[in-house]
Amino acid sequence: MAKLKNIAGIGEHHPARSNIRSSGYFSRLGPGIVTGAADDDPSGIGTYSQAGAQVGYGMLWAAPLLLPLAFATQEACARLALVTGKGLAAIIKARMPRWVLVLAVLLVAFANTVNIAADLASMAAALRLIVPVDQTLGVILFALVIAITEIFIPYHRYSKALRWLCLSLLAYVAVLFVAHVDWAHVASSTFVPKIDFSKATFELLIALAGTTISPYLFFWQAAEEVEELGAEQDKATSMTPVEDLSDRVASHHMQAMRGDVFSGMLTGVFIMFAIMTTAAATLNAHGIVTINSAEDAAAALTPIAGKFAGLLFLLGILGVGLLSVPVLAGSTAYAVAETFGWRESLELKPLQARAFYAVIVASMGVALLLNFAGIPPMYFLFLAAVMNGLSAPILMAIVWWLARDKNLLGKWASKWWSQWLLGLACAAMAALPVMWLLAK
């Protein structure tokens, strides 16, 4: 049987990161680092800040626990795309019953739309800290700017510029060196978990897990792996037979992918840890246990930014919002397009992928409508994180099943450690809602 050209092509897939051991590695990171940055979206900032304000240092242990689980999930998604040259929805379509595909796409579309709505609301609320703009007008403005930019400018171009704005998140790290952080308490809370088994605790855990292990990241990671292949011409081709896989992926590509994914997840979880610690040392320490507004969230940056805390918070929210909202809308579009076999790529022009970009516009439009429901922006962020946490276990179970399939991946099927980590992550995410229901 003839081999498909350049499916995970040896020496060509992700040429920028092809040699993980050579100099200048950080200039060659691939989709993993973008995924990690998008993981700390406005919903994440709001959720992590609320966790630190509400329980102080009490949830810091979640960061080192979630890191290997998030890495295992994203590594499996990247592995599937790297070996098959297909996006996640396309793989599900080819290997599983249709109802599974429909369920997966509906879950990710619903969770993503709520997440987009929450991120737009928080961006508008952050803008009001500096400019007296009506909340509704701000939401509409950001939705239009992001939609137009995503449709008419190739994502890889402006995402590079936006990463510089995301550096403002390092302000949360800087606060750790000037605020009165109880480092002994930080250490004990990080490595000695304490759970009070209350509904509030499990609700917070669901939100933290859902923000860190988010469904949209699964589809985005896989889609961006495929983007680098330039494989859109092969979309109509059937899934590659297992006997042809062994020669298609060089081991150093798999190694580089793991390094890329781990770097992205480590970055995202480290910022999560810094935000929770900062909020605990500033907000919780001064009796602020509930974040009701952007002003409350920005107050965590006061020790380092003073009267400019609002501006610094705005830059961080704008940076991660402008980077992550296109990821959210794009992951929905990839999932839907792969389901129906449409052409899909953020590198294509609008006329080359009308249906793909129509999904992006529709997703942004529904998110706009949700903002008219009158939900407070900060609560909206927390709600989006909870929605991610509830939908993630089902999608993780699907990824776990596919990644261990030797008929699909051949010798590149997930190793035992990956299967155990992903299985543990899936079980833990599924157990949290049950524990919440049983808790008092």
SSE topology:
Layout: H1 31-39, H2 42-55, H3 62-84, H4 88-95, H5 98-127, H6 135-152, H7 155-166, H8 170-175, H9 183-191, H10 199-212, H11 215-227, H12 251-282, H13 294-298, H14 302-305, H15 309-340, H16 354-370, H17 377-403, H18 406-409, H19 416-438
Second-tier CATH architecture: Up-down Bundle
What is the mean predicted local confidence, pLDDT? 81
Strand fraction equals: under 5%
Main sheet characteristics: none
Residue runs with pLDDT of under 50 for 5 or more positions: 1-29, 231-243
Output the radius of gyration. Answer: 21 Å
- Termini separation: 60 Å
Shape, per Cα inertia axes: globular
Q: How many helix segments?
A: 19
- Backbone structural class: mainly alpha
CATH topology: Amino acid/polyamine transporter I
Count of extended strands: 0
CATH class: Mainly Alpha
Work out the count of structural domains: 1
Question: How would you describe what is shown here?
Answer:
Helix content is 68%, strand content 0%. The chain is mainly α. The chain has one domain (33-438): Up-down Bundle (Amino acid/polyamine transporter I). Helix 2 crosses helix 12 (251-282), helix 5 packs antiparallel against helix 15 and helix 6 (135-152) runs antiparallel to helix 16. The radius of gyration is 21 Å and the shape is globular.
